[in-house]
Amino acid sequence: MSMGSREAGRFARATGPGRAVAALVPAALVAVLLLRWNAMRAASREEQRCRQALVRAARIVLVGELSASIAHEIHQPLSAIRSNADAARLLLGQPSVPTQELPRILDCIRCDTVRAQEVIHRLRKLLERGTLVRRDLNLHALLEEVIKMLGDEAQRRGVVLVLHSHAARAMVLGDEVQLQQVMLNVILNAMDAMRGTAAAARTAFIETRDGPGHIVVQVHDRGHGFSPDEAEALFQAFFTTKDGGMGLGLSISRSILEAHGGTIHAASRSGGGAVFTIRLPVRPEPAHAEAVDPVQGAGMSPAWPSEGARTAARSTEVTQ
Ligand SMILES: Nc1ncnc2c1ncn2[C@@H]1O[C@H](COP(=O)(O)OP(=O)(O)OP(=O)(O)O)[C@@H](O)[C@H]1O
Ligand SMILES: [Mg+2]
User: Fold this and answer.
1) Tens-place pLDDT, residues 36-55
2) pLDDT tens digits for 19-41?
3) 74 lines ligand 1 (CB under 6 A)
4) Closest Cα partner for 156 from 269, 73, 277, 267?
5) What is the bridge-based pairing of β-strands 160-165 and 203-211?
6) Is 282 exposed, middle or buried (0-12, 13-18, 19+ CB in 10 A)?
7) Which is the CATH superfamily of the domain at 134-318?
8) Could you state, in order of their start, the residue ranges of all structural domains in the chain?
9) Which residue has its alpha carbon closest to ligand 1 atom 31?
10) Ligand 1 nearest atom to the CA of residue 237, by list position
11) CB 240 less than 6 A from any atom of ligand 1
12) Mean pLDDT within 280-301
């Protein structure tokens, strides 16, 4: 626009017949620029729509991969509800009904109903079309939720997921479902990579640390790893080494993280396997800011987390 008005100013000084032509040229230029600007805006809206559709499609595939585990997660509380209902019916059939037992049975039924509802709620959230919503998120809570979602699948595959929440500042501004999608992708990849790993070593560590202005999340595995020249190719769309893979998980994860001002990189672990490093800008937490040591944990150790770290204050271990 500013270009249009600058042109208009320059042409206005022309005189004679040239003056009318000169007056038309900037108007035409403005019209062309306006058309191009509108076309560009429409294209970028279209690009954004396509991107969102792709992200959602990949999420549906992701949920599909977890379907056996989700079915199992819902089946468990439903079976417990049924057993408890049968037990209550038996009790009611007795000549002297032990009424003190009934409230306990009803409480169990209620708890299991809530458990099943939680699974369905998580699933619905992942499958919702929803627009991108940024809000304050605690990344530790998000990781715990993701590990809960993967718990059953990990158990089925004999994988142990260990979370070390070392970061003192874990608040980020982001879209919860998209960030969950990123973490699910990276952890599922780690689990895939460990299919051929000896059962005793099939552990993935998910670790958070403070970085300068960002939170660092690392996912370490002891899987088959990749060659050094593949480290960047992994993030290209449709790059896959899996039979049923689409090769979209990492490329979508990178674009989600970049849209959040973050990054993701892959490296080989010295002892074999891979480590994926995610960085996300932290949201300042004024109430606790003074208590935080900005230097603490600034550098991530590329080594396998030490055994001592397993006793970290907020460690969560899932499955055996
Ligand atoms: N932890 C890992 N260890 C070794 N290789 C990995 C790891 N994570 C990803 N890769 C490699 O990167 C490739 C691309 O991963 P990406 O998640 O983008 O796609 P995918 O897992 O093959 O398919 P999908 O689109 O279903 O996720 C994988 O096929 C695999 O070869
Ligand atoms: Mg993947």
Assistant:
1) 888 888 888 888 888 788 88
2) 666 667 677 888 888 888 888 88
3) no
4) 73
5) parallel
6) buried
7) Histidine kinase-like ATPase, C-terminal domain (3.30.565.10)
8) 2-62, 68-124, 134-318
9) 241
10) 18
11) yes
12) 50
